[in-house]
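Residues determine shape. We examine one folded chain.
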Amino acid sequence: ERVRLCNNPSPAYGGRACHGADVESRHCETTPCHVDGQWTGWSSWSRCSTSCGGGFHQRSRSCFDPPPQYGGRLCQGSDVDIQSCNLEPCPVDGKWASWSVWTPCSRTCGGGQSKRHRSCSNPPPASGG
C-alpha cells in the first residue's frame, strides 16, 4: 500500500484539491501460507473382536480437517485408538468325566445291584456355563 498527501503544494487561495486517489494498494507475495494438518473426529468404535474372554475394538481418524498444505505440519498423535473389550470370562459348559469302575454286586445271588458313577468335571461348568 502506498499513500500520498495533497501537500506539495497544498491547495491555497481557492485552488482545487488534488485529483485522484490518495491511497493505492496491490496484491503481492504469491506464495501460499503454511496450513497445518488437523484431525477429523474419531470414527465410531468397531465391534469387539470377541464376545467374551477379552478382545479389542478400535476407532480411527484422519489428518484431513484440513490436510497439511504448503509445508504445514502433519497431525500429531496416532490415527488409531485401540481398547480392550468384553473382558468377562466366557461361559464353560460342563462335560462328563469317565465312568468309575463298577462296584461289587450287592448280593451274591438272587439279583443284586452294581453301580458306577461319573461327575460333571471334565471340565466343570464355569462362568454361567
